[in-house]
Write a structure and sequence with these properties.
The complex is a heterodimer of chains A (about 450) and B (about 200).
Chain A lengths: L6 H9 L2 H23 L4 H17 L1 H14 L3 E5 L2 H14 L4 E4 L3 H5 L2 H7 L3 E4 L2 H8 L16 H12 L8 H18 L2 E4 L3 E3 L4 E6 L3 H8 L2 E7 L3 E2 L4 H13 L7 E5 L7 E7 L3 H6 L14 H5 L1 H6 L10 H11 L16 H5 L6 H14 L5 H15 L1 H17 L25 H12 L1
Parallel strand pairs in A: 1-10, 2-3, 2-4, 4-7, 5-8, 7-10
Antiparallel strand pairs in A: 5-6, 6-9
Helix pairs in contact in A: 2-12, 3-12, 9-10, 16-18, 19-20
Chain B lengths: L1 H13 L19 H11 L3 E5 L2 H11 L6 E3 L26 E5 L2 E3 L5 E4 L8 H4 L2 E7 L3 E2 L2 H8 L6 E5 L4 E2 L7 E2 L6 E7 L3
Parallel strand pairs in B: 1-11, 2-3, 3-6, 4-7, 6-11
Antiparallel strand pairs in B: 4-5, 5-8, 9-10
The chains are: A alpha/beta (about 450), B alpha/beta (about 200).
Chain lengths: ~450, ~200
Amino acid sequence: MSQTKDHAALAEVFNADEPRVDWHDETLWFIRQKRDKAAHTIPDWELLRETASQIKQHVLSNLSDYLQQFEANAKANGIIVHWAADAAEHNRIVHGILLQHQIDRMVKSKSMLTEECHLNEYLAEQGIEVIDSDLGERIVQLAKEPPSHIVLPCIHKKKEEIGELFHEHLGTPAGMADPQVLTEAARQHLRETFLTRRAALTGVNFAVAETGEFVICTNEGNADMGAHLADVHIASMGIEKLIPKREHLGVFLRLLARSATGQPITTYSSHFREPRPGHELHLVLVDNGRSVQLGREDFRNSLKCIRCGACMNTCPVYRRSGGHSYHTAVAGPIGSILAPNLDMKKHADLPFASTLCGSCSNVCPVKIDIHEQLYKWRQVIVKEGYADRKKTLGMKAMTQAFASPTAFRLAGKAGRWFMRHVPFVVSNQMNPWYKQREMPIPPKESFGEWYHKNREKHA
Amino acid sequence: MPSRDTILAAVARNQPDRLPMPEVPAFVSADADLVEKFTNVAVSIGSRVFPVKGMDEVKRILLQEHSIAKRVITAFPELKDLGEVSVAADADPHTLADVDLAILPAQFGVAENSALWVTDAQLPVRVLPFICQHLALVIPQQNIVPLMHQAYAAIGGQAYGFGTFIAGPSKTADIEQSLVLGAHGARTLSVFILEEE
């Protein structure tokens, strides 16, 4: 592989601190359990998932019409609609709006799309300061890190580390690590930000074709504080966020927060249909590879995603390797089927960062066949020649061994002999299977040998 | 607009054969007592719930609960003794930064998640329910619907500029999953359920 660090190498860094891995694992599993509890209180949960899935399938099959319908209705509502073919165009559009209003400081609420587009870095180069207002995002921004989870951006951080960051940047007392005190400090700091920024950028959870409105869900209220105080509100959305009708929000809002954190609904579900009188509301519709993914029959269902993060919370690999190991804006199982579409070579390792256990597909509120797509991506990646060369060679050797009974028996014998007599030949740092694992003592004989012996004995 | 056309063309080219729009099933709630369900959920997510007989009782409770509130804004003329009764629709939202308590009506509530629906029709200025330190919402008991589906049926084709469901106080659990109430929005939410006369 051409890249310097793949998921396995990055996960090894994360795995160096075993108690932290256990803590990360347990924290995310706790959220998964909260999701289960919330889902189990809804007798119609499976029917809701099926309905949501079908609505999204329908949208994808009719997306060009819905985009035009949405655009026409949004415009009629007074929203200024922009179209961006890729990340660069999105960033230029946002910069252009800011330039037009001579704004060089902006407040932003959570938008994984802007992470995908690396908007903050781009605007920083243009001399524009962006402050992330979601508490978790502000924490990782102060730490100069990307979010490690789409819903819980700093889930990898200990409160003591956050205390240190706040001591350095926000002036909290040294050693203060109480979440209540730290959150209050962030509230004061960001309130000043909300009150002084003339532009606010937000993401979009759902956009309704029928009404030309869009919905933003937060628990903190940061999207609303930014948008309702600023002169200019810019909302960035991927083109797959559309739903046909307002009544469909009833289906999705019942699923989203329950799947994400086990809450019955987020604190705020804000519907923006028109700009505030006398103010500008811009909406940027971003493609950035989505239309290509739509054309990939095996992978287009990934565009149904509503970004709840349930697949990450349940994933045994994500929980034990951390979001940063995925080196992409959206980590975890869903990120691993979205990222190869954008850059197959750079993200060739991600579909392999899975046990294919299927837990992700089981919790997905819109029934994306995530683990099946991970499996299919592996085949595409190997065919396209982007797979890890060691892996390809190993697979080839194995194919030969399995294809010939003689070779298979010989290989087994040799393996057992080496493992018994010179274990260091296989049990060393060169063999990733021996990391964090204690291997069993190899048997003296194979099942085949045992069977032959015993069949003769009992014949 | 070249990108618009390029995107639409690519989408049209790549989208699969058209699938029908599914019917949304008629979801119903098994909860017999909607007020009880609403109250239980609201309390579980950090709201304070007060069943009341009239606005006099709302006033008495607010005076008790928020005795130290300095700047109070209310949409109810009955509560004019508590603070300012009106905010100009064109008021600069920044001038609301020092509001301690806002008292507003909600159109209806949803039993399954205790969310309350508020639009421009109830909000003199959009930022008000978010920027105030404490929020009180008043709702007639008969306006509690079971599920989100019935909520959207009630909203129907409302032509609001802005509308929001508010469920509980502003909160975050971003620091080690420890729940803290009062992130950026209101620190507390008091819900007054007006009993049917």
